[in-house]
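Could you join me in thinking about how sequence relates to backbone shape in a protein? We need material for that, and I hope you will provide a protein of your own picking. Label the sequence line and the structure token line clearly, so we can match residues to local backbone shapes. Would you write everything just below, so we can both look at the same thing?
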Amino acid sequence: MADQSNWVWSPIARVYNPLRAGSIDGTDLEPHDKAVIRAMEVKYKPNKQVKGDPRCTLFVSNLNPKTTEDSLEKVFSKFGDIVRLRLVRDIVTGYSKRYAFIEYVDEKSMWQAHRKAYKMELDQYEVFVDVELTRTLKGWVPRRLGAGLGGSKESGQLRFGGRARPFRKPITVHTEGRIKRLKEDPEDNRDPYERMREEKERR
């Protein structure tokens, strides 16, 4: 059972928790599928040999299998200077695994690509982009180990708390005390990524 006492709800997870990621609103107290249990038990460590600055790295997925490194660079260099680009390929066949990592020279360029390339069409496919999570989101566990974010309904393993599938707001009872607090301190309903960018700028 997860400790929810210090957890503050947000549509985008600030710390990764496999149990919460398996819940549509992040409030589950018990795992509902075996993959969540597996993810909770695993001790995942990111690959230390991965190069580059994770804060300047964009994750791109849902690529056309025929999309190449050259076509990626041509499109994504419009948002800023690229330091490193890696289209992930099968180590045996060499075929694209349909996702890539693009490191920009600075965070400003990465955030611009994050904003403008979201659901952009590339080689007849609508691509998905997000910040790199492996090295930036504390507690991260990848999808191959039962966790991750997003997913399709057909897979039966939807994971929430990310850009593709944000947490839905939990149903709450609005008591008089809560209504008064909301009037005095209204909830911030802006894009969570916009809040993250503003927080970084203030530091």
In short: The helical segments are 18-21, 34-41, 69-76, 107-116, 176-184, 192-202. DSSP finds six helices and six strands in the chain. Residues 46 and 90 are 19 Å apart (CA to CA).
